[in-house]
Amino acid sequence: MSTPQPPMPQTAAPNWQAAPGSSYPTYTSPIPVVRTHLGHALASEWTKIRSVRSTMWTLGVFVLLVVGIGLAAAALVAANSADGGVGDENPLSLGFFGLLLGSMCIITLGVLTTASEYGTGMIRTTMTACPSRGRVLAAKAIVFFSVAFVVTLAASLVVALADVSMLDAREPTGQEWLKGTVGISLYIALLGLLSLVVGSIIRHSAGAITIMIGVLLAPLVIALFMFSESLQDLQQALFEYSIPNQLSVFYSQSLSSSGPSGWDPLWIMLVVTAAAFAAAYALLEKRDV
Amino acid sequence: MSRFSVGGMIELEGLTKRYGEKVAVNNLTFTVRPGIVTGFLGPNGAGKSTTMRMILGLDHPTAGQVRIDGKRYDQLKDPLTYIGALLEAKAWHGGRSAFNHLLCLAQSNGIATNRVREVLETVGLTAVAKKKTKGFSMGMGQRLGIAGALLGDPRILMFDEPVNGLDPEGIHWIRNLMKSLAAQGRTVFVSSHLMSEMALTADHLVVIGQGRLLADTSMADFIERNSRSYVRIRTPQRELLLDVLHTAGIMAVQTGDGALEVDGSKAEQIGELAARHGVVLHELSPQQASLEEAFMQLTAESVEYHAHADAVPGGQQRPPGQERQSWGSEWRRS
């Protein structure tokens, strides 16, 4: 650096003096200017979700779990029950175990949809391309929810049809069909959407997945260890409102005196997700990317 | 904010960003104009990237504002066709192919898919378009980032440290690219911590240190002001030579390592004087302070991460031309 430096090349003759004031010819792009809207963001998010392998992995494992466990459970029950039937039970309820385990895949995909962009730095590119942060979050939510719902519905429908045909059980009622397929798929997709929103709040994939698995399992596990008399009410509430129990409500026709019943779990999840979404949106607007 | 009628202006007014106690960007006011390459220069941690993120609406300013042709970034309806930016390297998902990465960007702004192929061709990544970006070298990553910036064929382009990780051929390419983009009348705003790089590409220079504006000047002015020449002399008869020079009306300055320095290109004159008075010279060498040194002088006080803090005896700014002890010698060490 101490060597004498040759005179600076003057090739880049600065024409900057001409720039200010006068009508300087500004570049006009030949690309037609488009006023961007939610549709553009949706197309973009759809490309994103289908072009990474984690989507294929999580959804592949999900389908495998739901269908595999669902069919295995039905086969076991069919083989072991004395008269080949399950009596008065709702035959669709055998899909429960697969969906409970599979919901972890949906949680993972939901978290990754938002949080992985923070891990990779993609979020800066995304927000530069679409400065409307609410639109980005909405597009992600719509695309992910649709994918999660369709995949869950397909998987649960396959299991439901197989269960009914394999078991010598009563024909489920229309209401049971609706709750056991569409209802539970909406619930699982909402759970995934909640994960997506938590991912946007936490901005860290592993952290958000851990939190969501905690939300999924902790209340039930904690309730199991509440032996004290004084905590009995709390134990009861934790048990009844735990996500696994809420999932089972979609298969039960019994109206218990306490706890969620009928379509309640769906409304509970809807309210929780909406509140989390509002918080995520407020934080997204407030925080730096 | 309608002071200017021409398009492609980036205007910063009192832009400030604080992270708790630390001030990352401190009251920056300057304008980036179209038709030229504006270099944004500062040492590491000076606040260049933070400023660029605020221009793009990614970070909220603590105070002040930044406008692009009078609008906030999030008010732009067609951001990518208006302003393209290369942010820090690899701001994308490594599992996605280069093509799909650019495709999702294009779709978000309603840009035709065909344009994705065009920019991949422009940056020379067509052959690896379907490959996952995870395996890209740093240079390929920079090219993909530049492709993203060019995607919307925008009138304003911002590049954050574009030559990082590029090979000589790539550096040559990006220099020419920036110049040609500016020649088309676009606004080109490029950050760097290398003065030598800026000297080759930029027409205008904005220098910051510790978030504060240190210079906002044309490159030509900066060169004229800072690349002054001087003569370095070493002699065992220093007192005698000083007397001789003083009689001849030449101002000599003693440097830390015992040498003398004389401003201007007077090597021949000094040599003849020394010969006439029989002074022994061990060295008589014309020198030119490099722009790099001028830049370091300018940002001396604001360098955040000194390599050898103890080896640098203070960085106090001396008025130019006065008691200049071995111009830039402390920088050579650090």
Features:
heterodimer; A: 289 residues; mainly alpha; 10 helices; 0% strand; B: 334 residues; alpha/beta; 6-stranded mixed β-sheet; 34% helix; 24% strand; elongated; disordered C terminus
Verbal overview:
The complex is a heterodimer of chains A (289) and B (334). Chain A has 289 residues and is mostly helical. Chain A has one domain. Chain A has ten helices and no strands. In chain A, α2 runs antiparallel to α3. The N terminus of chain A is likely disordered. Chain B has 334 residues and is of the alpha/beta class. Chain B has a six-stranded mixed beta sheet with strand order 5-6-7-3-8-9, with helices on both faces. In chain B, a hairpin with a 2-residue loop joins β1 and β2. In chain B, α3 crosses α4. The interface between A and B is large, with 56 and 77 residues.
In short:
The complex is a heterodimer of chains A (289) and B (334). With 289 residues, chain A is an all-alpha fold. Helices cover 68% and strands 0% of the residues of chain A.
